[in-house]
From TrEMBL:
Main subcellular localisation: mitochondrion
GO BP, sorted A to Z: electron transport chain
Cofactor(s) essential for the protein: Cu cation
Function of the molecule: Component of the cytochrome c oxidase, the last enzyme in the mitochondrial electron transport chain which drives oxidative phosphorylation. The respiratory chain contains 3 multisubunit complexes succinate dehydrogenase (complex II, CII), ubiquinol-cytochrome c oxidoreductase (cytochrome b-c1 complex, complex III, CIII) and cytochrome c oxidase (complex IV, CIV), that cooperate to transfer electrons derived from NADH and succinate to molecular oxygen, creating an electrochemical gradient over the inner membrane that drives transmembrane transport and the ATP synthase.
Presence of the UniProt keyword Translocase in the record: yes
Name under which the protein is recorded: Cytochrome c oxidase subunit 2
UniProt entry keywords in alphabetical sequence: Copper, Electron transport, Magnesium, Membrane, Metal-binding, Mitochondrion, Mitochondrion inner membrane, Respiratory chain, Translocase, Transmembrane, Transmembrane helix, Transport
Cellular component aspect of the GO annotation: mitochondrial inner membrane
Entries under InterPro entries matching the protein: CcO_II, CcO_II-like_C, CcO_II_C, Copper_CuA, Cupredoxin, Cyt_c_oxidase_su2, Cyt_c_oxidase_su2_TM_dom, Cyt_c_oxidase_su2_TM_sf
Encoding gene (name): COX2
Cell compartments where the protein resides: Mitochondrion inner membrane
Native source species: Homo sapiens
Leader sequence residues: none
Length: 227
């Protein structure tokens, strides 16, 4: 999860998030180069006396500064489209979870386990135990296995919500009357936090998401839900 004064992105827990971090660094390097060139050109403009009249007609330079931005856009667009299509791939998921957004809590349904359904509310400050996180911990966590493709079916029952877990690279809108889906494969166990990322009313800040990821062998041993 994020910590105080953090500048970069959260550590990746899925292959998609690793790709997103790589693309972020790739795009940031291009931005740094553009900023350096612009600042260098401004510095030359402010410190050089423009006495050469030939600079008023420089077709070669105009050609370069027209083609170069197009090349830069292609270098950014190609890896971006690749990641976009990767996020839409659903390859034979091992488990399907349905998430329903409400004002202001989440309902989860394990469709592969006989319709196991439970609500997940934020823990009030009075119920927090040592080690719990204020505004982030919930009464019922979503327990999922690692190293297995998981499909999330996301919808809403009232207003627009957004189911987001940054460390997994997930952010999918929950829209009333529409069923969106996303997939992920976690690479390491742990407890990961997210929040609703769509302004959905007065208590928008109070509907967190908590995923508890455990090894697949332990998950297959039997029910691990504490409801």
């Amino acid at each position: 999860m994020a910590h105080a004064a953090q500048v970069g992105l959260q550590d990746a827990t899925s292959p998609i998030m690793e790709e997103l971090i790589t693309f972020h660094d790739h795009a940031l390097m291009i931005i740094f180069l553009i900023c350096f060139l612009v600042l260098y050109a401004l510095f030359l403009t402010l410190t050089t006396k423009l006495t050469n009249t030939n600079i008023s007609d420089a077709q070669e330079m105009e050609t370069v500064w027209t083609i170069l931005p197009a090349i830069i856009l292609v270098l950014i667009a190609l890896p971006s489209l690749r990641i976009l299509y990767m996020t839409d791939e659903i390859n034979d998921p091992s488990l399907t979870i349905k998430s329903i957004g409400h004002q202001w809590y989440w309902t989860y349904e394990y469709t592969d386990y006989g319709g196991l359904i439970f609500n997940s509310y934020m823990l009030p400050p009075l119920f927090l135990e040592p080690g719990d996180l204020r505004l982030l911990d919930v009464d019922n966590r979503v327990v999922l296995p690692i190293e297995a493709p998981i499909r999330m079916m996301i919808t809403s029952q009232d207003v627009l919500h957004s189911w987001a877990v940054p460390t997994l690279g997930l952010k999918t809108d929950a829209i009333p009357g529409r069923l969106n889906q996303t997939t992920f494969t976690a690479t390491r166990p742990g407890v990961y936090y997210g929040q609703c990322s769509e302004i959905c009313g007065a208590n928008h800040s109070f509907m967190p998401i908590v995923l508890e990821l455990i090894p697949l062998k332990i998950f297959e041993m039997g029910p691990v839900f504490t409801l």
